[in-house]
Amino acid sequence: MAVTSFPKSEIKILLLENIHPVARDELAAQGFQVECVSSALPEAELAERVRDAHVLGIRSKTRITQKVLDEGKRLLAVGAFCIGTNQIDIAHASKRGVPVFNAPFSNTRSVAELILAEIVMLSRHLGDRVTEVHAGKWRKVAVGSHEVRGQTIGIVGYGHIGSQIGVLAESFGMRVVFHDIVAKLPMGNNRSMPSLDDLLEVSDFVTVHVPETPQTKNMIGPEQLARMKQGSYLLNASRGTVVVIDALAAALKTGHLGGAAIDVYPSEPESNSDGFESPLRGLTNVILTPHIGGSTEEAQEAIGKEVSAALMKFVNQGATTGAVNFPLVELPITRGTHRVLNIHRNVPGVLRDINKIVSDLQANIRAQVLATDPDIGYLIMDLDQDVSRDVKAAIGSLPTSIKTRILF
Ligand code: NAI
Question: Is 58:64 a contact under the CB 8 Å cutoff?
């Protein structure tokens, strides 16, 4: 079965913001028309260019507003070649039947490696020693410098990044404990702790890898810092709102904490040309980095592959795996059928109307799957070929339908 209702060469993909070339190569190899632009586009220009695009690929700087989505009459999908999707009006994309795909896990390893490096840096006060030598000062000291072998790392949030760090830290000879609100299978000899407080009290290094949620906002504040061991270290490369920065600065100044490595901040500069202010600047044994935990060439390439693969699967087969705003539907292709894809408003009676159409046209359904979220429903049906066009036309004209496609 060919997989699109019109030749792939007529599907236009517009990639903005210097997305890794692997994405262009993989999409072009599928036969799609791919156009690349190196920068982000302002709203008015994007609204113009999106008119004949079937797929739009962006990174974090392009804003996809309601106006852009409304102009994108042919738009099938948006690929966010990054982690966050705040730059996109997600609710309006759903309303218009446009799934948004991102790449949440492509930079897991990059963050984990950075944390491991920083643990050694903190334990050896490397940041300060390097600065001193660059300034022409020679301070050869061993006091206060330690190997990390045998020390305990406490991982808060044992998800993709946290568990990867657990594996790497253990092979480094560290003892690993973790805390998560969801029961997790411990990797290797990693041990789960019953509570955050228990973890804070036993850890020489506490590293935080939780998402930004109401529960994690300010989760490491004065009380939690006070519970940490004297001279221990805090690392945060998750989200800036998780740690109360003033409380951390105070704990560092009193010497209760021996140092910190911070990659994310409650408010971050918009661009590389803006300045950076923080109460943490200038403190001893504090490593400050500009949100680069996941910024490696490998991660960019992995993002390029992951998002383009998700986009291809959606265009070619209708699968929404990896979409942030769509019900998850994935159905293996049934040989010798045509596939009808229907996105509709999730209101009572839609399925009844669709079933009536199928029954009136005496269409034989060979496979079917429907999933809904509170706003939209997404249906994939594999049908005998003789009736598929009529079914598509009838379903597409229902007042509840947002978008209907057919794949031959
Ligand atoms: P994930 O979703 O795989 O793991 C997060 C874990 O935290 C889950 O196991 C979840 O159950 C747990 N969790 C949630 N609330 C919790 C709570 N209140 N207490 C304890 N555990 C809790 O996420 P992933 O991929 O590991 O990412 C973690 C964080 O790292 C995210 O905030 C993400 O935005 C950030 N990140 C930062 C990067 C950087 O450049 N610095 C790059 C990539 C991710």
Answer: yes
